[in-house]
């Protein structure tokens, strides 16, 4: 029997835009409540976090606008690509996040999604503050300077 190579060995899908748009204050690792074929699509690496954001409803944390592509080999029981998904955190972490979230200008941003050692899908979320335009320009300058130094070293 041939081995199935659809699934990647390690899953580490990052939200590259988040690091540019936000300054991270604190990071947390949360579990995800998934339905049906969503885990198979995650293992195939078909997830987009670029437009995703987190919010509180009834003292629970949810993520919205995270796109998990429908599983191509599913028959009729496929999942909805963009739906609200519940994030699993301890009560203590939820209380800490909700207190800081109510402060002005702070957001909860999904940073990356990965599969842990036990095969469970986990999401790293960060409490962040939006960067100003001059902060973004400084980041670009630093990145360019580092790239130039790396070129000179080679």
TrEMBL record:
Keyword DNA-binding among record annotations: yes
Gene Ontology, cellular component aspect: cytosol
Composition skew (Basic and acidic residues), residue ranges: 136-154
Subcellular location: Cytoplasm
Keywords assigned: Cytoplasm, DNA-binding, RNA-binding
SUPFAM superfamilies: Small protein B (SmpB) (SSF74982)
Main location: cytoplasm
CDD domains the UniProt entry points to: SmpB (cd09294)
Pfam families: SmpB
GO function term, MF aspect, one: DNA binding
Annotated region (Disordered), positions in chain: 133-154
Gene Ontology terms: biological process: trans-translation; trans-translation-dependent protein tagging
Family: Belongs to the SmpB family.
UniProt-listed PANTHER family: SSRA-BINDING PROTEIN, TMRNA-BINDING COMPONENT OF TRANS-TRANSLATION TAGGING COMPLEX
Biological role stated in the UniProt entry: Required for rescue of stalled ribosomes mediated by trans-translation. Binds to transfer-messenger RNA (tmRNA), required for stable association of tmRNA with ribosomes. tmRNA and SmpB together mimic tRNA shape, replacing the anticodon stem-loop with SmpB. tmRNA is encoded by the ssrA gene; the 2 termini fold to resemble tRNA(Ala) and it encodes a 'tag peptide', a short internal open reading frame. During trans-translation Ala-aminoacylated tmRNA acts like a tRNA, entering the A-site of stalled ribosomes, displacing the stalled mRNA.
Protein's UniProt name: SsrA-binding protein
Native source species: Anditalea andensis
Gene, per the UniProt record: smpB
């Amino acid at each position: 029997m041939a081995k199935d190579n659809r699934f990647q060995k390690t899953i580490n899908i990052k939200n590259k835009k988040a690091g540019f748009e936000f300054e991270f204050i604190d990071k947390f690792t949360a579990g995800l409540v998934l339905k049906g074929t969503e885990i198979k699509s995650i293992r195939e690496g078909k997830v987009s976090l670029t437009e995703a954001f987190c919010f509180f409803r009834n003292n629970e944390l949810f993520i919205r606008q995270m796109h998990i592509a429908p599983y191509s080999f599913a028959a009729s029981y496929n999942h909805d690509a963009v739906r609200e998904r519940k994030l699993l955190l301890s009560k203590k972490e939820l209380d800490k996040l909700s207190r800081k979230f109510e402060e002005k200008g702070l957001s909860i941003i999904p940073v990356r999604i990965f599969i842990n050692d036990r095969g469970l899908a986990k999401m790293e979320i960060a409490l962040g503050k939006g960067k100003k335009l001059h902060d973004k320009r400084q980041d670009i300058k630093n990145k360019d300077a580092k790239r130039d130094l790396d070129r000179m070293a080679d």
